[in-house]
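Q: Hi! First time doing this. I have a protein sequence and I read that you can turn it into a structure. Is that right? Here it is:
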Amino acid sequence: MIYTVELNFSDPAREAEWSAWYETYLQQLVTLPGLTTAQRFRAVEKGAQHWEYLALYSIASLDVYASEAYRRIGGGGNASLRFKNALSRRRNVYAGIDRMPEVAGEGRVLLCEDASGGFDLPNVLFTPLEAAAGRQKAGATELDGEPTHRALAVTAAASVDRRGLTRKGGLAVYAPITKRYVQR
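A: Yes, that's right. Below is the predicted 3D structure, encoded as structure tokens:
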């Protein structure tokens, strides 16, 4: 499964501090049993979709969020409390991808909001995603459970640019801002 966290951060004066904190937090998360990858992304074109930031995690099950290890590192929003007033977010867990692939510097994540099968684009394979849990508390984390169906693809920046995908309605395009952290 993948755990998606879509975020907006409304305090430009603290954005660099928040990003530095988040990078350290990703490194802590992949030490947890059941959470195997973590990577952050930023919208290629600010304002083109509702969420400016995206974090994608590979998880074995929701049990990771109920673990004492997760709570110890501040999981469920406790670690980010000092940024709470500047954060808005939507969190969900999806079946359809067991392990999120690495997205390198010139790679892009395409995330469909309303097209559960993705879009028909040559040489771009969308994977349908289905919410694996509805709106609920999963251990220390609140899941929004929406949207229930989406699609995700990884492609090259040149393909996004050539096709003008940042302007396609219902499609969010993200570039990596961290490396992919992997559990060792």
